[in-house]
């Protein structure tokens, strides 16, 4: 393994290097201790089986490398008084980050029972990966963390998200060579084309090549040096190399590389801030090549462990039962010379803490890593300014997302100085008709521009890259460090981040139980270009299942909204942008959509989450209706209103109630979701026993799964998207999926007792209209005029 | 825009170049015609509004570039008699690929009504993106395609999948600069570290930099040339550059680059096949830099279009209503000189077809792109050889996936010559305990090796890279070209490919309606290291929701299995590996699991999909039971059996029926899924009206959503994972989620009428045991001995 000493002049003295090594040994000792020991933490007596945990869990392999990085970050933070956080990509190396947090005192500040002495060390060890204790990974419970590191791929996009609009912040980011193989990580290297050296902070990637994953060598570690260098320069970085297996040599090289990197960052920022940042800089990056499981057992039972994949988790197993392993563990732990590292009370020796920063400069205590502490309310303008006038329902049309765009433009303008609001999306902001925001800010772009380009700006706060993963990662990093944002995405392709939103919801759910974690702004999705209006793209772009996915997760952290028109979208957006600690999914169309509610009505409707639209129905409050027509989603709402219109004209004495649902969780039982309706309230809307024809935006069985406990459920008949799609007209899409007005009228006739005979002619008329539709579109390629010209005549 | 002429000697004559240009013009004409025309296809008369489609849909921007690549692939295929397919990453440019398929006659071979003459041309134009017609993208309906191109990111991994084990095949792969920004694409560049030049075919990536996405410049197109070159060399390629906007110059350069690339590929393969392939080659790659919407309108309404993002979809809109646009369209179409391209009957002129290959050499007719034509049944060994002996249920333990590993090793060995079976996984094959396969083959690896490495081999057919996206893409490409495979994955992280599996299921669903598409092998998932046994990793690794996601999709293409022990896993694996055109999800544990069924019993149970385990219950067939204990999944099955055991001992006269479900879709109504049970059969298993306590592996509401129409549904009480996880013991996981044996017994007591009083003491005992559990694990960190020592005593 090659050693590339830093070429930086000066550098730390041998004395300082020895102090750093002392800190590193202490961290390594504490990391190994967490994996193995439940007693005798300072090895005051010979190690015995009962000192060993009964279940050995944790990841040793990456821990010494993380400890090395932490030790050296401590040094430069102290020396330069840096405001810094670190994203630990190999976050499954929880023992390392916990060890460092305990050493710098931030762990004890956060969890006072885990004192910085022998008793606390024993507690630190025991609770690691122990039932009722703390997770084995860097997790929300870990001070100083904004990144879990269990599901790999998001370290670098989180780091960029943290750095945006934090010009004084350094975000170090350790990227493991395993994680580097993932798609999301591979895409996120290009984040440097979006980082503005004037208004943003710096990201310092540290690519840690320890050579192996769980069971295999890694791709990047086995590239020839020239190929790796070309790759990193191709990513736009100016790499520095550190490597070896002799600790003191590596400390020297690492200290030099850190100094060089930080000097370059300072120079880049100073130059850009002097001249306005006209060129995209080539930011430094450190490649750290050290053995996996470094300083751990070199061999176990005759097989090499240190420097191989065998060091990934627990290098010595069966320690309670295997005396030779027990002895080997004791030798290993004693190799760190704990007697030099901790005083008689088990407190870290002064030499260990020599370069450890203090107060909020500690990586375990920087407020950026507990972003809610820094969060300010967004300045939300009065919605009245943006609301569309509605003299009567269904008489005018607006594009809801375009109306929202005007509101977002105002928020962008009002945060121009604060710079704490960003809009992200995979090249779809304009396609999703939010382009009004460009009146207030540009699209972030540091690369070259051409005269034909529009709206690109070094300091833009709209973020567009054709990677949903990168958009999501950036936004998570931005929110977790105490800012606000919105992700606008084609509905079908938000599934690309299914697994990322899982992890974010898990994070939110966990932090809700941690009083020291201040609430952060919600992660807000605007899903548009939705299943019903993919005229250009067809079947591949039709999938409304993200809502199903999200509703599987912790209900306390999840909200789903289907505003049916422009004003309800405004009211919904206003709500979600003010909220905290949720994932809010807002599904709304970008195509012209009837305006149903005034702003005041919209606000009241959103506050209730679901309600009767009296003006649309023909029932009165004195009696139960004959049938309930329910809807959620803009297109189903239109079809339900059109069906109600047909029923009013063809069956004027039928008592029809129209119910619209904005907040989908309202359908759930009150004990299953904080927004769930009590049964009495639900029954008051949907009745106990009348037929309910529910036209839903997505997969129909979701409504059944939410409402199966309700009294009316045997009478609930749901229409929705059933995976019948292609490139076709908007109305053909609803016909194909049986959500069209004619089918809904037929459903009513089929389900209201006694109507089948009385309304047979009406039913036939509806069936005929569906046939006419089929004939018409095949000839004309457009929808029936009676459909395209329809307006509400209530 | 720079032009880099090929440096290859020789190259095509000017005459040949002009013939290529004629073909390209024809393809461009046909592409534009599809977007715009519904009549007058040959422009025999001046263009009038009624010739124009009423809805203008399609993507022009990428089409000229795709046409250029197709034209030049035709040339080299003809000249070198190549066996070649092409993956069109920018597959939304459907008009281009359809145009070429019509030109080479493969479209008419596939759809005889679309003749290669004027009438057929009119039909080709009209049906494009027209209701009842064909999708706007390259799609399953497109001859020669294995790739949709609607959701971007998977072109290159599909191409590698197609090339593996096809040593005679060239797989060209066009990568758009938009798609190149996605994570999955960014990761898939490293496929060349896994491509064996001896046993695999060649992949020729063609990176098409047309500069813009929907609304933005692309990252790669704006890299300085040196940075782009470094990046591509860092990816391990030896790039060739072609660019410009003068067609004849670009044709010359492209022909030269194609020749150079293919010469290099031949040299690489010949050398490797002579010496056994000891070095990883640097494969060629072509960078093609041409304007977006090339040859289309330069300006529209005073704004530049050609060469900008405005050319992305339909460059001229409102053509029916805007006479100036209509005239501009006519000028544009006539600029291709259709009178030179087609004869009086509308047939392509001879000069157009000069370099078009014939028969199965045509890209639209290569059987590799209709892989089912080449598919052979897998040689499946007799399961008896691998089955575990079961003298009595629940007396022995095996690790199911390890048992499966022996079977897979045999399949690997028996396909050593045929090379048509691969196992993919993100670095988890051994972690998932399938390592027996290494006795039969190695892990594919072309990079350097070290002495400490194990099981790496140039020609290995186990594929491990830490990218679920790449694993999925490789396997899809491999299956779509007529081979077999299995994807083993941690259960939680298979969500990473949610969106990819969506697209694959959509593909399968569409091909099922296309008689000319031969069935392909199913895509088989083995989900293991599942939610209940993430002792090392905790909450981030706990998510059983992939099943929910998949069950939202087309039921004809989706199957889900929960084999409860080793022998049922064998029987399930045997079934899924023989099946066609499905996505099969098999969820099974890797941890020691009780053996419940003999192989014969397992086969019978799997054939039924769900059944009563008479030996486990206390009811008899003469009467309805008092309660049904149902289970799906290995851990819930164990808890249900343990609960049945407790009930037998504590409440011996209670008639308990135990039902196990292997095939989850059996719970669905027969009319909703091909495997769904008729009501009578369902009721015979679960009763009409007795309490059913169902312990399910995943989110409990899924069972409700599948079974809500059944008579017994009001009595159905489901326990499952409810997002309560952390790093803890296996039994604590079931306790936290209320799926443990004690809770199940309490559920029975709570729900069987009359039992609450009679069995109050038993209930208290169960509650006490849960308390004892909590106390015990917090003290000892391990599960109660009464749990870990439990065996079935039936």
TrEMBL record, chains A, B:
Residues 13-373 form the Xylulose 5-phosphate/Fructose 6-phosphate phosphoketolase N-terminal domain. Keywords: Lyase, Thiamine pyrophosphate. GO terms for molecular function: aldehyde-lyase activity; magnesium ion binding. The keyword Protein transport does not apply. Pfam families: XFP, XFP_C, XFP_N. CDD domains: TPP_PK. InterPro entries: Phosphoketolase, THDP-binding, Transketo_C/PFOR_II, Xul5P/Fru6P_PKetolase, Xul5P/Fru6P_PKetolase_C, Xul5P/Fru6P_PKetolase_CS, Xul5P/Fru6P_PKetolase_N, Xul5P/Fru6P_PKetolase_ThDP_BS. One of its GO terms (biological process) is carbohydrate metabolic process. Residues 590-792 form the Xylulose 5-phosphate/Fructose 6-phosphate phosphoketolase C-terminal domain. Its EC number is 4.1.2.-. Its cofactor is thiamine diphosphate. PANTHER family: PHOSPHOKETOLASE-RELATED (PTHR31273:SF0). Belongs to the XFP family. HAMAP family: Phosphoketolase. This is Probable phosphoketolase. It comes from Kitasatospora aureofaciens (Streptomyces aureofaciens).
